[in-house]
Structures are given as C-alpha cells and as structure tokens.
Amino acid sequence: MPPRLAHVVLQTENIPRLRDWYNEVLGAHVVFEDEKIAFITYDHEHHRVAFLSAGMLREILGQDGQSAPAPSGIVTAGLNHFAYALNGMQELFDNYDRLKALGHLPYWCIDHGPSTAMYYHDPDGNSVEFQVDNFPTSEECTAYLRSPSFAQNPIGIEYDPEVKRKELRTGKRT
Description:
Elements (H helix, E strand, L loop, with lengths): L3 E9 L2 H12 L2 E5 L3 E5 L7 E5 L2 H5 L17 E8 L3 H13 L6 E4 L3 E7 L5 E7 L4 H8 L2 H5 L4 E2 L2 H10 L4
Parallel strand pairs: 1-4, 5-8
Antiparallel strand pairs: 1-5, 2-3, 3-4, 6-7, 6-9, 7-8
C-alpha cells in the first residue's frame, strides 16, 4: 500500500489566484511556474500542490482549441488528480500487476521527468496517480523541476507499462 499521499493537482482558469491563495494558506512557495502550470510545496516534498491551466492537457495531447472536448479522463476544472507515492519502480510495477489482476488498467502511463507515474480512474471517474520519484532525493527532484529540460516538457513522455516492465526485468531498453 502507498506509504504517503504525494500531491494534489487542481485545474483552474486563474493559476496566479489559486497559487497565491495556497501559498498563503499553506505557507508554501513556488518550485516551478510558467503560464500553463505551477508547482508549490511547503515541506520536504518536491511538490505538494500543482495548478494546471484548464486547456493545457488538451493542447499537449493534441486537441485543438478550447471548444474541443477533453480526452477521456481529463477534467477541465476542479480536481485533476491526487497522487500516491510508492517506494521505487519495483513497487510501482508490483502495484500495476496487483491492480491489473483485479481488472484495473491505467489509462495513462508517463515519465514526468522527476517522477514516473501510472494514472487510473476510480468508479466515479476521478483520477488517481501512483508514482515513484526518478531521483534519489527530493532536492534532486526539485532541481530538475527548476531546470530548462523540465521547462521544455513539463508533462513528460508516455510509455507502455508492459514494455517498461520488460526493460526493468532485463535491464535493457527495447
């Protein structure tokens, strides 16, 4: 079972308003921000709350324009997802196997850069992320969030969980 809740992601039409409110209420500070996404934290975790512009995921996933319907599983306002942190890739894939055996498959698998994640829907359609950090320390994750590499691609690269699991088992990229 996940040892801790990692972060919450909210979608909004006004990132600065929400960011400022949460920074004030939680005593948090910005780790990364551009016009489409912001990450804040108030403790040792590299980010506890993130804010997405309402149209960001549609744009990144190839949807054109604000009038296009959101892809399945992508909300346009409110809670986007909450995330549970696991203790390494083996645990992430053990969890994948456990959930797959129960008939639950992720709808999105992505290497975000600072973390690798699998997203699932609950019965009401809410998104739940299971993630592992890709760096040994929170400080290194934070440094990556502040890097030009992250700024160029703040969402990450999708992956096939079966291919990634095979790579982990063999130690070779396929």
